[in-house]
Amino acid sequence: MSDIIIRDIETIIVDLPLRRLQRFSALAARTQSLVVIRVRSQDGVQGVGEGSIPSGPWWGGESVETIKTIIDSYLAPVLVGQRATDMTLLRARMDEAAFGNSFAKAGLEMALWDLIGKTLEQPVHALLGGKVRESLSVAWPLATGDPRQEVQEALSKLEAGEASAFKLKMGAVELKKDVARACEVALALRDKAGIRVDPNERWTEVDALWALPRLADIGVEMIEQPLPRNDLDGAARLQARSAIPIMLDESIRTTRDMLEAAKKGAGTLISLKLMKSGGMVSSRGVAEVALAAGSALYMGTFLESSLGTSGNMQFCATLPHLPLGGELVGPMLIAEDITEEPVRYVDGALQLPSGNGIGARVDEDKLEAYRRDRSRTTASVAPNNGGDRATALAGA
Ligand code: MN
Fold first, then answer.
1. What's the 328 CA to ligand 1 centre distance in angstroms?
2. Which residues of the chain are modeled with pLDDT < 70?
3. Of 191, 174, 186, 255, nearest to 223 (Cα)?
4. pLDDT score at 380
5. Which bin fits 81, alpha (ψ -120 to 50), beta or left (φ > 0)?
6. pTM, to two decimals
7. Ligand 1 centre from 198 Cα, in Å?
């Protein structure tokens, strides 16, 4: 086999409409923006990855705009001309070229794995050491803030077999009101599905000490990142007093973060996300430290499209024991997807896509329809007018 030499790298920002309002602790969103990253080899094979962001830079400091700029200006130049299979070297070159920027690096790494897989005609999970699962039970986010609507939404998702548990996003409203809402939803769904909550760092330790026993009473089975990400001491103190397992998400991005959490006794559960840790290789490292420390793993999401979800599922397929499953539900929340075939959900579980690479291909028509720069890319030279540019503002 000839070497897989990286010929060029292309990044395209895409804005996809969401099916419903998604309220995070920091903001409310009606669209999901992502970056489609294409890496082509000299043999003409194309690998594709997705840089996904939970509605702007509030979560991790990066945005779709920074992902595109960092890749175009700093990461692509050090990768073009290199062998795609030299992954350790390529990751080192990216780290030398740009500090941090884990979302940009993760999306690019996904495209590289896809390129290698598509060239070698192997799924990415086989390249990562092999799969141990074919599906992932998923929790659906309840995030509109209206408990009656949220209960109805949950019941319909259960009926459709599109979720096996629910995660209530909290922290956007005053604590007592928020806990009352959680109680209403949890009581209505009791004995029907598991309920977890995620305040996205918005609580103080005092808030959490007040809320935790109340949430435990109504059967909430997990609380995610109640305290600010840097407060590992607080997280450890809370875990020692909590009947509910506490999951760390924002706190854990690197193996070093995980080691610190383990030393302090924080993190009964760890949410893994390719984007926050800089890709599949780094995320695997975090998972190994977590397992060595006795923590359990969980597969988190940044609401990827079917493209990114396929890449995440390739990684997820290699993870042992996920006691609460995960939440790769982006494709169900996005109203218009960008792959030829959407990922499939059966009985509340995401199915591992078949096929080589990440197991997904971009639908070129949809990419053209939803790319942010579509007004510029449809620009054409009008005939017989001396070369003046006539720009077609297709939906801009
Ligand atoms: Mn989270």
1. 12
2. 1, 375-396
3. 186
4. 40
5. left
6. 0.91
7. 6
